[in-house]
Amino acid sequence: MNFVALQLLKIPETRRRILTTFGLLVAYRVGFQIPIPGMSPEYVERITGEAGSTAFGLLSAFSGGMIGQTVIFALGIMPYISASIIFSILAKVSPRIEALQKEGATGQKKINQYTRLSVVPIAFLQALFIWFGIFRKDEQMIAGNQDPDSIMLMMSVVLSLMAGAILVMWIGELITEYGVGNGASLIIMAGIIATMPSSLGQMYAQQQDQAYNTLMTLIGIWVAIVLVIVFIQKGERRVPIQYARLTRGRRVYGGQRHYLPLKVNMAGVMPIIFASALFIIPGVLFGFLEWDTLNSMFQDTDGFVYIFMSMSLVFAFCFFWNNLMFRPEEIADNLREHGSFIPGIRPGAKTAGYLKEILTRITLAGAAFLALIAVLPNFITGGIPGLQGQLAYFLGGTSVLIVVGVALDLVDRLNAQLVMRNYDGFMKGRSSGGWAKTGGTKG
User: Fold this and answer.
1) Distance between alpha carbon 86 and the CA centroid of its chain, in Å?
2) Residue 47 confidence class, pLDDT cut points 50, 70, 90
3) Would you say 266 and 355 are in contact if contact means Cβ atoms under 8 Å apart?
4) Angle subtended at Cα 133 by Cα 127 and Cα 139, rounded to the nearest 5 degrees
């Protein structure tokens, strides 16, 4: 890393994009200061112990919102993420959506429009879930002069949450179009980072005598987790691809060797998101039916049932997502159509089987990593007194995985801006020499 990054502010377009991104993120955080009409403005957040024993804190980290708080941006970007995930899956299983995706920019524009429209019903369902699952159960959130059974109050809360979710989606798209990086990812990262000062202050208030030692321990844990996550995120399995040589007159085309990069953590945080969302359903259902024994088993984050089910779901969703998004048969057909092949492997079915075998091995490694990340916050919370809530989730690794992934993507985008203008970039030789000498492609 060098001081070439200072050149970013000397480029008018990049400087404008950075300032636009910063301004939109500030506007996004302002929404967390606006209470929902009819809700108690004094009630800021739920009890810390309760937040740490449920999956709401983890879903808040994924959505960039504050599920369980009486503000209009409580849902965050979660409805838009849910809609994007749905259409990502439909693009693989629905022939109509898959045909639109193959149309290029025009088809992608239509899919984006469908995604925006589907945010409205998804936000409505999630807002109803928040009302009946959280707000209605805790009447301290409702203002004293309001009737908790009022239909008008329920509609006011639901419509406010829907409007906030749509506004957050709009801010995210503005960041994507006029700012730097992916707007939804930056909103999630901003939501995670914004909760850290208050969480640290709360921990300091509970551990005034041991605050320094605890802080040093947390820094050590954070550095170790970041190093492991960066190592796994950058880890990839390179499959050699050989282009066939074609002779046209006296000229020979092709013959170069490239690589097909397969990331170890190909699924990202999607399996953890699916597992966390699925875990909320039994807890709410058992609580509604007053099945206290089963409910306590799903709420006990340190118990065997919770840890075993969580790790099993992460493994299952990791294999499901990778097999859905990465199609070895399509890759094999594309390689054969373009005159490419894997050295030592016959084109066609043999190539597809070889890629599927590699996918299974790297998915197993990525699933083990994600499963460990999913349950690690529980051990950290129990090991350090006073470390609960959002801070525990952050240090546990899941939120760090999001922040590090978004930060790496942001660095790559800014580095591309510098390279386009003949600068060396953040890392000298990374863009110009390192990849060209190996003949590889950056994955």
Assistant:
1) 15
2) very low
3) no
4) 100
Beta carbons within 8 Å of 336's beta carbon, 6+ residues apart: 347, 348, 351
Per the structure block, which two tokens stand in for 314? Answer: 């992460």
The three-state secondary structure class of 408 is: helix
CA atoms within 13 A on the CB side of 89: 11
Q: Do the domains spanning 8-194 and 208-443 agree at the CATH topology level?
A: yes
Its CATH architecture, for the domain 8-194, is Orthogonal Bundle (1.10)
Question: Hey, is 239 helix, strand or coil?
Answer: strand
Look up residue 308 and give its two tokens.
């075993």
* The predicted structure's pLDDT at residue 287: 65
Instruction: Give the per-residue pLDDT at 167.
Output: 92
Torsion sign (Cα): 178, 183, 187, 190: negative
Q: Which two tokens stand for residue 21?
A: 């991104």
pLDDT per position as a tens digit, 61-98: 656 556 657 778 888 888 888 888 888 888 888 888 88
Q: pLDDT digits over 374-386, tens only?
A: 777 666 655 555 5
Segment (H or E) for 54: none
Q: Which CATH number fits domain 208-443: 1.10.3370.10, 1.10.10.10, 3.20.20.70, 3.40.50.1110?
A: 1.10.3370.10
Q: Between 78-93 and 270-288, two packed helices, what is the crossing angle to 10 degrees?
A: 110
Q: Where are the domains of the chain?
A: 8-194, 208-443
Instruction: Name 346's Cβ contacts closer than 8 Å, sequence gap at least 6.
Output: none
Look up residue 84 and give its two tokens: 């994007």
**pTM, two decimal places:** 0.75
Higher pLDDT, 6 or 237: 237
